[in-house]
Amino acid sequence: MPLNPDVLWYKDAIFYQVHVRTFHDSNGDGIGDFQGLEQKLDYLEELGISAIWLMPFFPSPLRDDGYDIADYTAVHSSYGTLEDFRTFLESAHRRGIRVVIEMVLNHTSDQHPWFQESRSGEDNPRRDWYVWSHTDTRYKGTRIIFLDTETSNWAWDPISKSFYWHRFFSHQPDLNYDNPAVREQMWNVMKFWLEMGVDAFRLDAVPYLVEREGTNCENLPETHGILKELRRKLDENFPARMLLAEANQWPADLRPYFGDGDEFHMAFHFPLMPRMFMGLKLEDRKPITEILQQTPEIPSSCQWSLFLRNHDELTLEMVTDIERDYMYDMYAESKTMRLNLGIRRRLAPLLDNDRRRIELMNGMLMSLPGTPIIYYGDEIGMGDNTDLGDRNGVRTPMQWSGGWNGGFSTADPEHLYAPLIQSPVYGYPAVNVFSQRESDHSLLRWMRRIIAVRRSTRVFGRGSIEFLYPANHRILAYLRHSGNEVVLVVNNLSSTAQAVELDLRRYKGNILIEMFGKNMFPRVGDLPYLLTMGPYQFYWFRLRRI
Amino acid sequence: METTAHRAASQKHAAVLRTEMKLAEENFLTDDFLRQLINVGEVDILVGLPTHNNAKTIGSIVQAIQRGILRGFPRERAVIINPDGGSRDGTPALVTEVSIGDSRPTSNLHALRTFHSISTKYASSPASDVALRTILAAAEVLRAKACVVLSPESANIEPEWLSKLLGPIYRDGFDLVTPTYRRHKFEGLLITNLLYPMTRALYGLRVREAYSPEFGFSGPLGSQFLEQNVWNDAANGAGVELRFTLSAIAGKYRIGQSFLGEKDSAGRRGADLVLALRQTAGALFSALEPGFPAWSVATGSQPIPTTGTDQEVILAPLRVNRRRLREMFSTGVAELGSVFASILSLSTLAELQRIARLGEDEFHYPAELWVRTVYELAASYRKSVISRDHIVQALAPLFRGRACTFLMENRNASAGEVENSIEGLCIEFERLKPYLLQMWE
Amino acid sequence: MREMIVSELSQALREIARGFAHLLPRVIVMLILASAGWVIAYAAKAVLRSILRLVKFDKLSENAGATQLLTRAALPSATELLCRFVFWVAWLGFILLGVSVLGIMGLQEQIARFFLFLPRLFVAVFIMFLGLLAASFFSRAALLAAVNANVPSPRVLSLAIRSMIIVFVLSIVFEELGLAEQTMLVAFGIAFGAMMLGLAIAFGMGGRDLARRFLEKKFVRGTKEENEDDLSPL
Asked: For residue B223, which of B136, B146, B98, B296 has the smallest C-alpha distance?
């Protein structure tokens, strides 16, 4: 299947987020690699994925799961070679699957040669590539992001006898984007990958590129300038590629990252995700509709990126204190599940392994405006291990079968990069691709079906959204419009059966065709349209006049 | 000997009968209101607020309710139910204004979830029993765990009142929470001189405000009261709140009281005494017959758990026209002689006539005589010697005489002394309970 | 001549005997009817007494204030009175029936008229009873309301209302019985009118202030002056 030639391919795409280390090990060393990933591309093609987002695979001391990069134009030896990556890339393209890779612009590992040089002396040519200071009082008031481990944004370097700025871990010094050499070099890095054929970049931690005194050092105009410049170069030289922003901000603060369609193509809608979980527990659509009401319009070529879970904690930065306490009490009773103002659990454990809730959340993910991202393993309902440090509990090996090492690797279990999930409920004998493939009613089969329905129409990826506000607040209902196509989505957020009356007067005369079974529902008349819904049930209806 | 199987079968049979009876009765909730209730769905907290032309005060009251719920119960599902008795000044719209939802974005308000406020017109003129029944019916279908009824006349309501009335029910398992207030020592004499001592003596529980327009109750208690056959009794239109409290006492539910604050008496001055008597004494008398098995066996009285102080007393000086009260008492006794002759004993009537002739300085309506008077009227009420409503009306001048004496005795009293005075009266009521029982047979 | 007298006498005697013979059976029938009537009337009285006891008629009449009237008139209780009344009416009916059997002319007509009169008599009694009930209730209600509203001379008002209702009821009763209808009607009209006029003058002149205050309270929505003695009872 060839690649979708449309410049706006990312609007219709289904993304799959995966770390090469976790997916499949081809050489028996206990660590997933590119050859192994390439072997599993059939599986992803069958699932219906059209773009893979790879976590960082660059050479790195791996103190931040690869986000501390020590070499931008190579592949970490554990995962294979550059040639392996190239092979994998071509193989993916042949199946019509695009590849998105990480690009950490804001900082490098302190093991990166550039930093080694920079710290060696004040007169080193790369001195100015990082942000140095003799005191740690500059940029006061800037918030600390990794609250659980860091106490300051400045770290003392004993070699250079001065402080260096780091918004993240202290072993990840920030690059100095006021230096044109830095900007030039980073573009060259990106060009390297683009020329190889990589389709898109997820630019990590973009709000923090530039610092200025007297500000909170986030989202500064200078930062936007740099990003626009990158985009311009990209459009000029590599059309139909894409930039995805990672910026955990309120929607209003995120809006500038789209510019006028001249900055990022896509950005993650961070505030929506915790509210979906909140709405589910409250059995009330209010948190979800409110955040979407506050979401600003974005340029027509731009797209939100939606997700339920990812490699990080379920972040609760963008909620009020009452909401955060509620989420902690509901979803993370045990303190070990909490990290950095978030909850480090996978989708299935968060939803008590309730198949109906898992389906409902995926249904909303696939029908709300934006491009959905599936986190690897969530399509089979993998579990987590909160005893593993940091966020590693949600980054355990992919479970392919009930056999040796869950089919992930032929190595000895002790050599795996991380232990497999063993619990009776989520362990690999119970939850794995092989057995779910065999069963008609497995979550995997269901995910395939819903992805197929989603891909059968453009209205979900490209259409506008209009909320209906039925009096029953447990029902989240909205219409998606695109051209002449109208789709009605109705979600029951409650654990109990509900009745809802929808005001569809404008669509009087249309019949409703349920999109999974393709069966007809009664025609819309003058009276409010009555629907009865089972617990956590959802409907997608195509409206048709016939 | 009834086996468990038999008992289970008969219970099931009774349940089936009850359901059948329920189906056979007329629909009490209107279709439109029912639709609104369906949309609200199950709730944890229900606030009942009956209204009739309260546009002047209702705005601040519902704001206080909303704040009270958001502060005290931020995670709970809550609803305001507003049965309206045909307001013409836009009161219902003001009540529903305070709902919080996504269809009408309200900035500055951090509410975790949707907060409903719905209104229904239950009649074209106010009737407190129909209003209460509407609230109870809504509480039952919405399966509310803790409910509170508030009065639109309490313009000084604080957000904390919600926690004080609902908290013990929602969190500590109480079934009924009655309020206590800070009042002037001379306000609420009908409560302190009649209702409180008599309910205490007869029912054995020291519920200070058995009749109150604001109180909290649990879902099970509400459902139980809803099923009782009090709704078709025309005489109980007034004072159904008192029946509620007595029903809770008789049913051995867990009862407590909470100190709320100052009782807003400004709106109640000049209120009709006869109406007040109907709501209190009338309701109490009418409850005695069906409640006989409960109150006839109670002896002494027990205090009930109280949050906050018991009640506070304001001692500010207040000008009271005692002479007018005494004169109305004397006139009443004189003019209503023929009526009293048929409802009081000869000795009591003679005694009343004697003190009616006393001058201002010697006038004294002793506690014991008052208690006998009230008990004899209660007995006459039961026998329906004359029209029952007339018996209640006849109580008015007698109450005025008693009020006059109370005011005289306590004109310089401190808070403690007033409380002792009331306590003394209570003990008198308890002591003479056998007298009532004797007349009752 | 003696034979003429004897024959006339014997003829007369024979006629008398014939008359007796003619009458005697009827008298016997009449006596039988009377006795049977007594038995039936007695039974009816007993049945009625049970019924009235069941519906607590005595209490009703006490409410009506009828009992007090009867006691003052040294009459037995209302139930007893009614039972006796029914007994006598029933027995009288049977007696009259017996008398009618005698076949005495003219008497038939009167008897028939008596029987026709009976239903109206019952209705009249019933109306009277209801009227007394109403008079008692409303006069007491007025008394209580007046006392509680501190209206002067409440008993006068109560009595006035009671009288008005009784006068009204009496006139209906008399009309029902058909006794001096026109007279009663006119007399009632005059009495009622005079009473109303008197009351109007009395209240109009004496109740000027009261009326003004009442109207002020109802229609003038000004600030409510707090009466110094107006405590809140609740």
From this structure: B136
Cα–Cα–Cα angle for A397, A399, A400, nearest 5°? 130
* A97-109: average pLDDT: 95
Q: Are residues A478 and A339 in the same domain?
A: no
A293 and B112: CB-CB below 8 Å?
A: no
In a domain? residue A3: no
Q: Which residue ranges make up each domain of chain C?
A: 1-104, 118-218
Percent of chain C with pLDDT over 90: 0
Asked if residue A136 and residue A273 are part of one domain, the reply reads no
- Identify whether A359 is a catalytic site residue: no
Range of the domain at A94: 9-106+176-455
Residue that the structure tokens 């607020």 belong to: B49
Say yes or no to pLDDT of B11 above 60.
no
Q: Say what the pLDDT of residue A340 is.
A: 67
B330: which 2 tokens? 């004397």
* Chain A residues with a Cβ under 8 Å from any Cβ in chain B: 278, 282, 284-287, 289-290, 293, 320, 322-323, 326, 467, 469-474, 494, 496, 498-499, 501
Give the domain-ending residue among A455, A478, A500. Answer: A455
pLDDT grade for A48, boundaries at 50, 70 and 90: very high
Q: What is the ipTM of this complex?
A: 0.80
pLDDT by residue (tens digit) across B367-381? 999 999 999 999 999
Instruction: Provide the pLDDT confidence category of residue C228 given band limits of 50, 70 and 90.
Output: very low
Is A375 in the same domain as A469?
A: no
pTM of this structure: 0.81
A515 with A487: CB under 8 angstroms? yes
Return d(Cα A334, Cα C151) in angstroms, integer: 75
> Does the beta-carbon distance from C140 to B274 stay under 8 Å?
no
Q: What domains, with CATH codes, occur in chain B?
A: 4-314 (3.90.550.10), 322-440 (no CATH)
Q: How confident is the model at residue B269 (pLDDT cuts 50, 70, 90)?
A: low
pLDDT at C225: 45
d(CA B373, CA B432): 11
- Ranges of beta strands (E only) in B54-198 are 78-84, 116-121, 146-149, 176-184
User: Can you tell me the distance from the alpha carbon of A207 to that of A224, in angstroms, rounded to the nearest whole number?
Assistant: 9
A263 is catalytic: no
- Token readout for A105 is 């612009």
Q: What is the mean pLDDT of residues B118-139?
A: 90
CA dihedral B379, B385, B390, B396 (to 10 degrees): -40
My answer on whether A205 and A151 are in the same domain is no
Q: Which two tokens stand for residue A263?
A: 């900055």
Contact between A167 and A208 under an 8 Å Cβ cutoff? The reply is yes
Report pLDDT digits (tens) over A337-395: 777 677 888 999 999 999 999 999 999 999 999 999 999 999 999 999 888 877 788 99
Of C59, C224, C229, the CB nearest to B324: C229
* C118-218 CATH choice from 1.10.287, 1.20.1070, 1.20.272, 3.40.50: 1.10.287
Token pair, residue C133, equals 């009930």
Interface contacts (A, B; CB < 8 Å): 52
